[in-house]
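Board notes (copied after class):
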Amino acid sequence: MATHARPGPSPTGRRIPELDPTAVREWRARGGELVDLFARAREELGGVAAIGLGPRPTVLVTEPQAVQHVLALHPDRYVKRSHRARLLIGDGLLAATGEAWQRQRRLLQAQFTGRGMRRYEQRITEAARTAATRWAAYARTGEVFDVGDEMRRFALDTIWRSLTGHPLDPGTERELTSVPAVVAALPSLPADGADPQGAVAADLARIDAVASRAIAAARDDVPGPDGPGLLHVLVEAAGTRPEYTDRLIRDELVTLLVAGHETTATTLTWLHLLLDRNPDAREQALAAGAEGSPARREAVQALVHETLRFYPSAWILPRRAAQADVLAGYEVEADTDVLVCPYLTHRDPGLWQDPGRFDPGRFTTPGRRPTHPGSYYPFGLGARACLGLQFALRESTALLEHLLPGPVPRFHSVPDKSAYSITVRPDGPTPASLAG
């Protein structure tokens, strides 16, 4: 009987080292977190490692040069499969590919850089003041509140003002709690499922109803108190670009809601939890300069950056090898699933000194952090990096500049685990009260 040996590596590349299949079986048997399996692969095999997870080859990438190769230098070779959140965001920018993605990105890019960002400064500031007013009331009354809920409320208000020109009203806020509900449910739903299951269908219907009303108001040219919002740009695009149907405008709106509030809210929740464990970091940021000074703003931004090092906006960035390639000296077969993992890159002791320590000074002191762009990429890297990077940093900094000098949250309990979905979020409530 003839035998078929596994093909050897190409002369231009070595075979990627593979995690022992026994480790994968043991991990499956105990129902472990995917990140634990990835961490073992990285520790045992290095920054490019093969893991037998399914019918297609799967490669984990955490080494900075390999990260840059995949995300920044060769995005044409490493492309997106269907986005995990497609059930929610449809054909919005995060899920779009090819020429459609290029057209959609060109339209939105100008809104999040330079002059476009200045358009949203006042809206961000007003949302931060509104949140600070709520916190002042909590301090007066001693009321217990959930920090995570407050951060979602602020971030949703910020993106809603930016999209529509209107502050977030209580009814819309209630309806849009469906967004994090769907995001949290995504890991338990079949990939590319055509029929949403259970409560997710009702959540999607509520989101669609909010989107429909907002689009109708923008189409009727009803500006908010801050003037027209980003939604007006999308509606106006429909006049000259036939691809901007009502459905695509809805998908872009929901994409901006998800990307513009869920990730920021999660980052800010983690930041408060980290400050609770590291109170000196708060004091050091406030002592860096006077209120409103560039020095204090830099120190506050460093708190955000260090939080994003621990908990990047997306903990894993999936790609598919569209063709065979050589990655960091290793042969990658066409149709390989390539999983780039900023969560593990950011915690690599070979790159970051004492990576388990919360140390915002890494981002203010020259020479304290690795300089390779593939070492720190909480919003991705290259052409498909998150457009909202500057927006997210600005809104996070604005809120912290209002809250940090005030009463300190005292947590009544804190989650003891993390939940790994599109983001990494605290797996449980975060009740707190404010103390002077």
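Comment from the instructor: The CA atoms of residues 72 and 382 lie 4 Å apart. Residues 56-435 form a domain with the Cytochrome p450 fold (CATH 1.10.630.10).
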